[in-house]
Each structure stands twice: as C-alpha cells, then as structure tokens.
Amino acid sequence: MFSHALRSLMRSLSSVFSPIAAGIFAAGSIGVFLAFVLFLGRIDKGSNPNYFIIALVSLICWAWAFGFTVRCGVLRRHLPVLALPAAFIAMEMINFPFCTKLQFYCQIYHYVFYGLILLGIDFGIAHCLPKNRLGTLLNLAELLLIGFLYWILSLIVANVFLNGSGIDNDAMIAISQTDATEGSYYFFHENHGLALLLIGAGIGLVICGIVYCLWRLRPPVLKGKRRFAIIGILLPVLPLLLLGIVSNQFAYFMPPTWKTLMVNRDYRMQKKRYAEKRIAYMKYVEQELDKEQKDTGSDGLFLVVIGESASRRYMQCYGYHLPTTPFQQSLLEQPGMFLFRDAYACHVQTVKVLSLMLTNRNQYDGQKLGLTNLVSVIDLLAHYGYRTAWLSNQNMYTQDSWTTPLVETADVRVSLKDYGKRKSKTFYDLDLLKEADKLKPAKREVVFVHLWGNHLPYQNTYPADFQAPAEFTAYDKSMLYNDFVLKELFDFFSKRNLKMMMYIPDHADGVSVGKGHDPRPQGYVHEMIEVPFWIYLAPDYAAAHPELVAKLKTAEQRIITNDLIFNLLLGIMKIDNRFTESRYSPLSDDYLLNRDNALTLWRRRHVFNDTGEIGKEGE
Fold first, then answer.
1. What secondary structure letter does DSSP report for 456?
2. pTM of the entire structure?
C-alpha cells in the first residue's frame, strides 16, 4: 500500500515538475557557484569538501523548487522569493568582503534552506487558499514580509557604499553601549544618516509598489494534481534539515550577518555568566588571599580618573600649540608628577578597555579575553580593607554594560547618566564633585572617577556658558573643560589626604581625520590609541617611598598599554598579591613590554610597526 501511494505521489509530482527548467537553473547556479569558489580560492586555500558538497546539494534543491514554479506557470509571482537567497548571499559578500570558502558554502546552505520554507509558504498562501478576505490578507502580509527582507538587505548594502564599512561585531557592540543622544549624533554626523534615511524611504516606496503589483496579480488557485507542487517544493526541507544538524550548520556556521545580529545577545549572556560565577569565584579569591597578610598596602586616599576619548595630540602638556591643559601643564613643575609619553589604549571601545584595566586580565598573559576567570580590582581592594567608590558620568546600569559586574561591589556607586535619564536632566563631569563631597573619609580609600570626558559629540561635553578662546575647536574646548574638571578634582581630594592621583583615558579619537573611535580595519587609525597618562604623588607619599619615585621615573620612559593599569596601581599602593605578576608592571625590572611586542585591539594589532591585523580579537 505504501509503495502504491509513493508511486502515485511521484506521478503527481512529475506532472507538475519541469526537469528542463530545473536542469537549466541548476547548471547556471552551479556555474556561478564554481566561479565564486575559484575567485575565493585565490586567498583561501582550504578545501572543506563536505561543506562544498552540502552547498552543491542545496543549489540542486533550489533548482528542484524552481522546476515546480515553471511547470505550474506561476514563476512571475514567485520570482521575489526565488531571487532572495542570491540577494542575501550578495549582501553577505558586500557586508563582509573578506569571506572564506567555508563561509560561502554555509551561506548557500542557510539561505536556500530558509528560502525553501518561505517559498513553500508563499506558494501555499498564493495558490492553495481560497480567495476570501482571510486569504487576501495572508497574501498581503506574506508579500510585505518578503518586501521587508529586501528592504533590510538593501539598507545594509547602502550603508556599506555610503560609509565604506559594513555592520559587524564592533559596530554592534558600539551600538549596544551608546545612548540616544550619542547614537543620534553618530548616525547623522558620522554615518551619513540623512542619506541613509532618504535611500531607505526611496527603496521602501519602490518595494511597496512592487508588493502592490504582486498583490493585484490575483494568482490562480491551483487545483487537482497541481496542488502537489507545494509538496514537491517542501520535499527537500527535511533532508536539508538533517544535513544541517549533522554538519553543525545551526550551531557554528551561521552567516556572518546573523552572527553579528546576535552579538548583543552573546554580550549579555557573557555578563550573566560572569555574575553567576562571581560569588563562587570570589570565594576562591578570598581563600587564596587568606594565605597572605591583609595589612599590606598603604593608607590614605588614592584617586583614579578614567578619561574618555582623550587624544594627547591635543593637549598642551604633550606639546600641542594651544593652551588646552593649563592645569596639567602646571603639574609638570611638581616633583611628584610623572608624565608617560608612550601610553596606548588596549582597545578603542570603552567596555573592552575597562574589562582589562579594572581586572588582572591583559593582552599578554595568553588567556582568552572577556568576562571570565578574572579578578576585579574593586574586589581585591575590598579584601585589603579599602573602601571603594565608583563615580561615573557614563551609563553603567544598561543591560549591555560589562562595567556593571566589575564595579557592582564598590561601597559607593554613582551613575549620573543613568540618574539623568530618569530625571530628564543633563549632567556634566563637574557635577561628580557633588557626589564626591558625600563620601565619608576613611583610613584607606580608593575613588574611581569615570568621566564623560571628550566623547562625541564634543560640544555636548561642556556647559553652554563654558568660556574658551575663539580659535578653539569643539574638541579643544572639551579638552579645556576636561582639564578644568581634573583641577577641581585635584583640589578637592588634596584636602582629603590624597596620596596619589592617576589620569588614564580609555582610548582616544581620530580627531585629525574627522573620526571617532572605530576598531574595524577600514575605520581604525593609530591616533585612536594615543592616550595621555600621568601619575601624581603627594609630597608626603613621595617622601615616604623614595624607591617608588625612582621606579616611576624609570617607568614614565617605558611603553605601556592601559590594560596593565591594574598591576601598576597596586604596585603604587604597595599591595603585594599573587594576582599581579611583576613582568606586567612598569615598576618592575623584568617588565616585558617593548616596541616589538606591544599590542592593541585585544591582540588584533601591534602598537608599533603596524602592518594590519595579526589575529582574532581576544584569542
């Protein structure tokens, strides 16, 4: 009985299938496919025969579906869906031009697999449902979905041609860390936002017109054996699904754009995993530190000011021709002032810098970078009896912020940006002084101040009535205001037993070339990692530790990337522990960093002699 039913089904399918059309389509598709494989083979010598075969099978399945639409005489109605896989693969090649053969094979599999499902739905709604109100509405909804998919891929392609770069992991992380003001400024001033909106509107109108015309076609309701065409179209879906499961297509080999869209999800999951493991891990840390003396370290107040987007090229104390940093210039005359002229950022995205700056993880320890297997400086300081405060004028409590789990155990936590959102109020960096004034004095305390600093848009970093010379640009003016904030912080904490003040920004901006901070190859410039860095020791602290003064005089001549601040800070505070190897501290005689091995962008590039990317980020 089963064999009879199967033969009957095959006869029905053969009556609505065009082998000639399918063969021609398959030959053309495979020809184009092989041409691309040869093209990619110029730079990618890998073979991946299994995935090559999967891609071929996928193209044959797509040609199989094409044969049914031709024989049923409904090719014109389904051309948009039939062209969709090719359109998305072309988009992938444009958005990610450095495509490997393996990625290309997997893109073909995924877009054909989901294309078959969509074509089956499209065919069923267009030809198998009655032409009542429900059928008409479903037909319109499905056409609008197809139109939306074309609109999305068109915008992605337009973005590449307008800005010279695609939407990738770095872009998604930057988006997840921004707020409405910053995002709006970047979109319209740095990303050709207005042009993109106009193009999007134009493409949307064209797509709506095409959708209307297809909807007005009133495709025929297929009857008799022709209804079996939908079975024929969907027939390859199950074998392709099994093939994808066996070859790990859904676990590891999704198209790059799909992976990019999941960056924020993975980002949040990593933060969640860190939070879940944190309690257990800190028990381990406590057990390790219990073997050491808790009274190590120096008494007093230590101030760490973390800047934002500050480029030393525009600072008077680093030789800039305009008086943008009068306070810091005056500090150079103090014997306890140490100015590092070879300081560089370990990344150009704030969240990635802080995840190293505030922990014992760095680019040189051979460990995978991220929020795993690390110790926060806040937790370490708490163990040694320091009261800690985190005063920030940046977003800290957003769902995507990596900073939150690293500083959440600080005794005092303040985020003016988050508070300002709730109160619809704008705060400037100087407003952090009001929060500092609320801190109760302690025998041992470390205050971290995270500034908005020189962040884009530069004119929003200072109050409207802040005065500066007429020849100052918006960035110069933001630098002058930043210097004023540093002076006020210095004066305030000097009255509260200040022992050390450190100023280190997360990264710089590409101000001279009109860019912000972009780690992607097409957007990155060296200026984005050229940060200022200085340390000031109070006279009494310097007098009590002459050997530290001598070491800092040597250290300020050395190269440093800001992922090693963790080690340097603890060294200045005289905290000896097993989480800071001496070779990672500029105070040590066996300090490892030099011009040949200094890294940035989480190991993706050399700081000096940069010839391009040398590896994958964080690995």
1. S
2. 0.69
